[in-house]
Design a protein that fits this description.
By secondary structure, the protein is of the alpha+beta class. The protein contains two helices and six strands, in the order H-E-E-E-E-E-E-H. The protein has helices at about 5-25, 105-110, and strands at about 35-40, 50-55, 60-65, 75-85, 95, 100-105. The model has no long low-confidence stretch (mean pLDDT about 80).
Length: about 120
């Protein structure tokens, strides 16, 4: 490879990393407290386009978001960025960014998804 190609390759990789990092960072103007990421699973039929998708977290709390693309299925793992709304109460937490597909688990694994409080 010539030096010019190496330079271009390094610049493209750097740009891609910066773009990915920026895309994953929530807008601080939207935040009213601390932000955190969590992962849940879709345990019930998410319905069709425009319906609410219900996500169950491992602590048993449930959150909903609009089924914007109609591509969610039972067993899908969903990663979500939350804002704690400045409180310790989980039920008032706000979804900051579009939920992201993070994998899939079987019906047997879903039966053990919610963990007992310790």
């Amino acid at each position: 490879m010539r030096p010019t190609r190496n330079f271009i390759a390094v610049m493209l990789i750097g740009f891609a990393i910066a773009r990915i990092t920026t895309a994953c960072t929530p807008d601080p103007a939207e935040s009213t407290g601390n932000t955190y990421a969590d992962c849940g699973v879709i345990m019930d039929d998410p319905g069709k386009l425009g319906d609410d998708v219900i996500v169950t977290m491992q602590n048993g709390h449930m959150f909903a978001f609009e089924n914007e693309d109609g591509d969610w299925c039972i067993g899908d793992l969903v990663s979500i960025m939350f804002d704690d709304n400045g409180t310790l109460d989980i039920t008032d937490d706000i979804i900051l960014d579009h939920p992201r597909y993070s994998g899939w688990i079987s019906a047997e694994e879903m039966q053990q998804w919610v963990k007992e409080a310790r």
